[in-house]
């Protein structure tokens, strides 16, 4: 019985240990994601566009492809501003280093109708970030797998 108690105590100590430090790159890209989509959600298109390379390649499974920042921002102006807001689903957020270039960010996000407040759409995304002269810019975006949120996902969004 004492061995079992000792193991239980050791397990409890390990379980309450300080978590490992967060990955600095993931922290940095996460902060950038928050800034990009804060501007997107507020329709601050000047700030929003500043995060993208002028030659950004943007691939959207239902909307098609654009290959320049101005066209992409125009799409946001027409189809997003005043209609929808984006929310990252934090548990899906991942960041991977690209040696001598930058980072890949991937995850899922939900889209919430501003008129109703209901979050009825979900999609996956991948963004490629390049770090040039100390500044981060998004060079490529994949936005795909757009679908209706399940009832459970809608409930989860409602409790956020």
Task: Write structural notes for this entry.
The radius of gyration is 20 Å and the shape is globular. The protein is an alpha+beta fold and 160 residues long. Strand 4 and strand 5 form a beta hairpin. It contains 5 helices and 7 strands, in the order H-H-H-E-E-H-E-E-E-E-E-H.
The unreliable regions are 3-19
How many DSSP E strands? 7
DSSP strand (E) fraction? 35-45%
Overall geometry: globular
What is the SS-derived class? alpha+beta
If helices are DSSP runs of H or I spanning 4 or more residues, what is the number of helices? 5
Helix content: 25-40%
Oligomer: single chain
Cα-based radius of gyration, to the nearest Å: 20 Å
Give the end-to-end Cα distance, rounded to a whole number of Å: 44 Å
What would the average pLDDT be, to the nearest integer?
89
Mind summarizing the main beta sheet? 7 strands, mixed
Helix/strand order: HHHEEHEEEEEH
Features:
single chain; 160 residues; alpha+beta; seven-stranded mixed sheet; globular; disordered N terminus
SSE diagram, text form:
Layout: H1 2-15, H2 24-42, H3 45-49, E1 52-60, E2 64-66, H4 69-79, E3 84-88, E4 94-98, E5 102-113, E6 119-132, E7 135-148, H5 151-158
Parallel strand pairs: 1-7
Antiparallel strand pairs: 1-2, 3-5, 4-5, 5-6, 6-7
């Amino acid at each position: 019985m004492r061995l079992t108690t000792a193991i239980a105590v050791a397990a409890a100590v390990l379980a309450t240990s300080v978590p490992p430090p967060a990955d600095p790159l993931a922290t940095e890209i996460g902060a950038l994601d928050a800034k990009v989509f804060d501007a997107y959600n507020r329709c601050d298109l000047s700030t929003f566009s500043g995060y993208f390379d002028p030659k950004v390649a943007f691939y959207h499974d239902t909307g098609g492809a654009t290959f320049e920042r101005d066209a992409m921002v125009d799409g946001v102006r027409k189809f997003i501003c005043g209609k929808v807001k984006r929310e990252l689903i934090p548990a899906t957020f991942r960041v991977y280093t690209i040696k001598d270039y930058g980072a890949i960010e991937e995850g899922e996000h939900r889209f919430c109708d501003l008129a109703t407040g209901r979050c009825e759409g979900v999609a996956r995304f991948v963004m490629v970030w390049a770090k040039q002269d100390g500044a981060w810019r998004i060079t490529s975006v994949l936005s795909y797998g757009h679908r209706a949120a399940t009832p459970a996902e809608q409930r989860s969004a409602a409790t956020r």
